[in-house]
From TrEMBL:
Residues 32-269 form the Thioester reductase (TE) domain. SUPFAM superfamilies: NAD(P)-binding Rossmann-fold domains (SSF51735). It comes from the Bacteria. PANTHER family: BIFUNCTIONAL POLYMYXIN RESISTANCE PROTEIN ARNA, NAD-DEPENDENT EPIMERASE_DEHYDRATASE. Residues 167-191 are annotated as: Disordered. This is SDR family oxidoreductase. It comes from Cupriavidus basilensis.
């Protein structure tokens, strides 16, 4: 199969049309969870463009199969799939339910035929909602148990997070704190939010409880925007970049690196990890790695996109400045809840100050992973964010 990481949109369509005529061998049924979400939606698009529409099965909630199908098609289009190709999706692509569902015998029979799984389903929220642990740990384990003894299954790709490593890992160097895949193998209790802790817990339990599962864990770093569509599929985390750009300051130094990848790059990597017959490792960072830009470089790219001349240089500020920064944002955005902004800024400052750079050597060697730097597509994120409020974008990350 031919892959083109970063062609123009028209060129991508030509590549994908060709790919539809060269369907991956050995894939009888690819089960995708989280297809109505951000990363999962982009995986769905990548799979359809790779010629897998007839072999794709999506676990989707809905009032009925027709309702679930409508949700699938809508998210596929939002994630960049041509409307004509979204029409390829039918009720045959729908497995109605969720991670914790009790499936009827007919659905169980369909699950028994699954040869590949990409599990993107999760509650990706930085809130303290108890559902984060319930869905990301308990329900995920229940779902995985259905495949523990499956003779048909060849690959189970579980989407974790690079920050599952916790906050006390890695080796500090001049280019940031380098984190290898082995750094996430232990049980580090130090986490900034329940989400990253839940991802560490479930990864450990999947390996302990289901040793026969053909498990591969993919750990994306920070996923922000889309290389072509900007924030159209999701505005997650980009609100923070907007605040930093406007304020010209934050609690991380200008040379602190921000390890960010785009959702479509992440999705293509997940699909290739699922389909490649043989892999050398059972865990991979999907990250910018050594190519991660500094905060100052991202701000400069945003200045260029905004045609800002003679803008003040970005500078590091102490945490004591965050209340003032939050007040300025609340006033400008006409947000009454200044404390919400301040809490969010403090939370993300914890991640930014770590300066983690996740080693992506494994994934580069395995599938020639070449993620586009956020500095090269941040202009699209800014364009698609025009007229959208900060609070509206924050809602992607603080789901109730």
């Amino acid at each position: 199969m031919m892959w083109d990481w970063h062609a123009s949109l028209n060129a991508q369509d030509l590549v994908r049309t060709h790919a539809c005529d060269t369907r991956p061998a050995g894939v009888e049924c690819l089960l995708l969870t989280g297809a109505t979400g951000f990363i999962g939606g982009n995986v769905m698009v990548a799979a359809i463009n790779a010629g897998l529409a007839e072999r794709l099965l999506c676990l989707v909630r809905g009032n009925d199969a027709a309702d679930a199908l409508e949700r699938l098609r809508a998210n596929a289009i939002q994630c960049g799939l041509l409307a004509s190709r979204a029409a390829w999706l039918t009720v045959d692509n729908v497995l109605l339910g969720s991670l914790d569902s009790d499936f009827a015998p007919a659905a169980v029979a369909r699950l028994a035929c699954v040869t590949h799984v990409i599990n993107c389903a999760a509650m990706a929220s930085f809130s303290s909602n108890a559902q984060v642990t319930r869905i990301n740990v308990r329900d995920t384990l229940r779902f995985a148990s259905r495949f523990a003894d499956s003779p048909a299954l060849r690959r189970f790709v579980h989407v974790g997070t690079a920050m599952a490593c916790g906050t006390r890992r890695g080796t500090r160097g001049p280019r940031g704190t380098r984190i290898s895949e082995q750094d996430a193998s232990g049980d580090d209790a130090s986490h900034l939010v329940p989400y990253t802790r839940s991802k560490q817990q479930v990864e450990l339990l999947l390996r302990r409880d289901f040793p026969g599962l053909p498990l591969v864990v993919a750990r994306p770093s920070i996923v922000v925007g889309h290389t072509v569509l900007g924030t159209q599929p999701s505005a997650s985390i980009f609100w923070l970049f907007r605040i930093i750009h406007r304020a010209r300051r934050y609690t991380a130094g200008p040379l602190t690196r921000i390890d960010v990848i785009a959702a479509d790059d992440c999705a293509q990597a997940l699909l290739r990890l699922a389909l490649k017959p043989d892999l050398r490792f059972d865990a991979y960072h999907l990250s910018a790695g050594a190519g991660a830009p500094t905060i100052a470089q991202v701000v400069a790219a945003m200045d260029e996109a905004a045609l800002s001349e003679d803008a003040p240089a970005y500078r590091m500020c102490p945490a004591s400045d965050l209340p003032v920064l939050a007040h300025d944002v609340a006033r400008t955005e006409r947000i009454s809840n200044r404390r919400l902004i301040e809490r969010a800024l403090r939370l993300y400052s914890g991640f930014a100050e770590l300066g983690y750079v996740f080693d992506n050597g494994r994934i580069r060697e395995e599938i020639d992973f070449q993620p586009l730097s956020i500095t090269d597509y941040v202009s699209e994120c800014m364009r698609t964010s025009h007229g959208v409020g900060i609070l509206e974008q924050m809602s992607w990350d603080f789901k109730a």
